[in-house]
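Notes to self, Protein singed:
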Amino acid sequence: MATYITVADVDAILGSTWAPDDKKARAVLQANAYLTSLNLVGVDMDAIPDEVKQAGSELAKVASEGNLYQQQTEGSLEAKTVKAGSVSTSKTFATLDSSKIIAQPGDVQFALALLSPWRSSPFSFRVDRG
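result:
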């Protein structure tokens, strides 16, 4: 995992009150893991750009609130019955409601917008012809 930000970086950008001291290290760890999972391209790890540090700080703040890796838990229980003559069968299952859009927290959307110059398309790949 790459280290894009540190607790000191986040304290410098957001002020020292962005999270309780006992949550800061884990929040920064989660933010760095999130940033690493984005496969950012062209970030100079010896001189992290200010926009990447700002984005990491926003992600760390969201992580400290427990909202960075939030899961969708709303759904419904459905049942289907099929009958053919005197024989019937039924199946009951749970589904997630795909008609609802559950957006990421605003700070995560802001961080992703800041990172757009370094994000590659998930549908592209690099070809090395050398």
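- The longest strand covers residues 75-84.
- The helical segments are 7-14, 21-37, 50-64, 106-114.
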